[in-house]
Amino acid sequence: MKNLLLAGLVLLLGACASHPDFDYDKSVDFSQYKTFAWIPNASLTKGTNNYQISELMERRVQQAVNDELRAKGMELVSLQQADVLINYHASVDTKVDVDTFSTGYGARWDYWGIGYNVQTTTREYEVGTLVIDVVDRSSNQLVWRAAKEGRLKKNQTPIERTEVVRESVADILSNFPPQAQ
Which residues contact residue 157 at a Cβ distance below 8 angstroms, ignoring those fewer than 6 apart? Predict the structure, then answer.
């Protein structure tokens, strides 16, 4: 069940055209960060019983983050040597989409009148959110956070899921490190 939830989360994130939301501490010199490590027991699955979040998806997310940070010139090192620590969270929420369509009409040859028809449809769907945190190891303070949400897609192959995760993580980390203003 967790596997399907995480898969859905990743699919959703990749399917959305939304841009990631990010925030950071403007007083931090991000150019000083050259190494990273994972916060011990960082996990997408803690505290969730959603079937789409799985260990397979966790490994995909961690690998995608590792690849993106390496591409930015950072090195994965041991916890004690790291400049920053990485953590991530995922959640899946159910949303409802409501559409109302209204029509009005008028005349017939033998009758004049006004009518009005309203039709409402509702659809339930799942939205996943992936959050990535960067914590300064020496101060143990959160210095950067970004999140992306999107509508989950189901029935994807493992290759499609991996690609969606890679694209979503690349999008989330596109603003890391933040550029000096």
Answer: none
Token pair in block for residue 93: 């929420």
Rounded mean pLDDT of the chain?
A: 81
Q: Are 22 and 73 within 8 A, CB to CB?
A: no
User: What CA–CA distance (Å, rounded) separates 46 from 44?
Assistant: 6
Own/partner contacts of 64-73, CB < 8 Å, gap of 24 or more, are 64/165, 64/166, 64/168, 64/169, 64/170, 65/132, 65/169, 65/173, 67/166, 68/169, 68/170, 68/173, 69/36, 69/173, 72/173, 72/176, 72/177, 73/34
Q: Radius of gyration (Cα) for the chain, nearest Å?
A: 22
pTM for this one? 0.74
> Residue 3's CB: how many other CB atoms inside 10 A?
16
- pLDDT: which is higher, 105 or 5: 105
Tens of pLDDT, residues 47-95? 555 545 678 888 999 999 999 999 999 999 999 999 999 999 888 888 8
